[in-house]
Amino acid sequence: MGLLRRAAAAPVPETRLVLHIGLPKTGTSAIQHVLAAGASELAEVGLHVPYPHPDAVRGAVTAGNGAPLFGAVTAASTPAAMRDAAAVWLAGAVAPGQTSIVSSELLGTLSTARVTAVVEAATELAEVEVVAFVRDVYEHAYAAWGQLTKEGFTESFERYCAETYATDSEQTVAVLRWADAVPGMAVCHYDTHRHDVLETLFEAIGTKLPAPLRDRPVPQVNRSL
Hints:
The protein has helices at residues 28-37, 39-43, 54-57, 67-74, 79-93, 112-123, 137-150, 157-164, 170-181, 190-193, 197-204, 211-214; strands at residues 16-20, 47-48, 99-103, 127-134, 186-189. The longest helix is centred in the middle third of the chain and has 15 residues, at 79-93. By secondary structure, it is an alpha/beta fold.
């Protein structure tokens, strides 16, 4: 009489959520273009890009696929409501058994309470990882001032620095808020990796940029002065 053997259960893929929070002037728009335009190629290797924005697909500047998460959380006024709003949005964005990637610089501007709400809601669904790119202070300041100048800002660079960098920079504040909530967050130095920012992002989340996307030209989406 033959023995009945129970088939070994296939390993269950880990459900992960990667929150890419920018920061400003670190190639975010180009990253978001590649994520949106390459969503199908990324899906083939278990990387899920929820709600890719049509404008990002064609290379235009957008607030990223994480902008609706930012909107949902900022519309709420109590910690419980913030957490519930984040949970509702994330339930539709996180793909079980895959690594879901959500990107928006707006996430880097969230208050401590809202960062906490997003992380608490997300950890109910997935293993949460956060990636931020930062710049040298001078390079960041000049790039940010150049962006504002394109939009009609008329103050000198010196005055802009005196007013904006008198206290902790927005980079410092954003990184510390998210690092408190997700201690293992990855902080990448944009000035070191400006020519391989995409490869650096994927390395930070423990994978490689698929070959078809490595060979695809990336438009200069949001050029500074």
